[in-house]
Design brief:
single chain, alpha/beta, Spore Coat Polysaccharide Biosynthesis Protein SpsA, Chain A, eight-stranded mixed sheet
């Protein structure tokens, strides 16, 4: 029996992105993705309707926060391989076959390299850095795939984390099995960088990353993150 993949997309007010993403997923997969699950975090726009129209299975579990949304999607998934994808990230062509082949080589989990949809020297450099294997530069926008059984053994995403839940999950998975960094790239949107500024946003991300490893509380990190973003609003 051919193995299959469940694609899990956490979303919140993504009406501008969801239709194109679902279309891209359909056009880039080779028939091994059995379902696309969009887990809505309480959108107030047309995300749910557009996701359903695009052929996705939509969950509205009444939870907000990427970790809780992804856990809800994993619980509902029917395939033995889970592929967590951000709503602003597009997988490479034949991504499903690439993931299946990685599993057959012995990988229990893994992710892709990253590039941005904007040609900018610093963004190109940030993307280039994702070729290195350090857990410290593994983030959710690289597209995380994992055997469902391994995901469950790892305890799922830590729902106490609003930020950095992706790095902590990768850390857990690497403790428990083989993690493969694939050579192909996912393409993520530079929309936040364009809105906030490349240097400003990267400095914010670095501060969050450093604060997490220095032991700052999630409350402090989230407050800092939101204060910087709100201060950027015109």
């Amino acid at each position: 029996m051919e193995e299959s993949i469940s694609i899990i997309i956490p979303a919140l007010n993504e009406e501008k992105r969801i239709p194109a993403l679902l279309s891209e997923i359909q056009g880039r997969q080779g028939g091994l993705a059995s379902e696309v699950i969009v887990v809505d975090g309480g959108s107030t726009d047309s995300t749910v309707e557009l996701a359903e129209k695009g052929g996705a299975k939509v969950l509205q579990p009444g939870v907000r926060g990427r970790a809780a949304q992804m856990n809800a999607g994993a619980k509902a998934a029917s395939s033995d391989i889970l592929f967590f994808l951000h709503a602003d990230t597009t997988p490479p062509f034949n991504f499903d076959s690439i993931i299946i082949h990685s599993k057959k080589r012995g990988a229990d989990a893994g992710c892709f390299r990253l590039k941005f949809d904007r040609d900018h020297p610093l963004l190109n450099f940030f993307g280039w850095c994702t070729r290195f294997r350090s857990t410290l530069i593994r983030f959710g926008d690289q597209g995380l795939f994992v055997k469902k059984q391994m995901f469950e053994k790892a305890g799922g995403f830590d729902e106490t984390l609003t930020l950095m839940e992706d790095q902590e999950m990768v850390r857990e998975l690497k403790k428990r099995g083989e993690f493969e960094l694939l050579e192909e790239n996912v393409t993520t949107s530079a929309r936040k960088y364009e809105k906030i500024g490349v240097l400003r946003l990267q400095a914010l991300f670095f501060s969050i990353w450093a604060g997490h490893y220095l032991g700052m509380s999630q409350e402090a990190l989230v407050h800092f993150y939101r204060s910087v973003l709100s201060g950027n609003k015109k």
